[in-house]
Amino acid sequence: MTSFDDRERAFEAKYARDQEMTFRITARRNRLLGQWAAVQMELTPAEADAYAKAVVQADFEESGDEDVIRKLVGDLTAAGIETDEGIVRRALEERLIEARRQLMEAQ
């Protein structure tokens, strides 16, 4: 039984690490996405930092990426920037790759 218990604990630990890494990648991606949108809206550095944090917070509203995409499309449109959901989704995918790269380099 000991080897089974050890395997179970190892799988649980790996699952917890994987979930933490997924959360960190998503949070980093959302921050990078917020910074990208802030550049589009020509925000000051202080405003850009606050906006990036707001984008990270927006992801906690519901499961999935739709809340973040909705926020960015709405904010960019309100700022007079011509955008659509496709543009934001492409930016999201590009920032996901960058977030993974940054976190892998940090380890």
Your description of this structure?
The chain has 107 residues and is mostly helical. The protein has one domain (2-106): Major Prion Protein. Helices cover 82% and strands 0% of the residues. The chain has 4 helices and no strands. The chain has helices at 2-40, 45-58, 66-78, 85-106. Helix 1 (2-40) crosses helix 2 and helix 1 (2-40) packs across helix 4. It starts with a helix and ends with a helix. This is DUF1476 domain-containing protein. It comes from Sphingomonas mollis. InterPro entries: ATPase_inh_sub_z (IPR009945), ATPase_inh_sub_z_sf (IPR038293).
What are the SSEs and their pairings?
Blueprint: H1 2-40, H2 45-58, H3 66-78, H4 85-106
InterPro entries: ATPase_inh_sub_z (IPR009945), ATPase_inh_sub_z_sf (IPR038293)
Pfam families: ATPaseInh_sub_z (PF07345)
Organism: Sphingomonas mollis
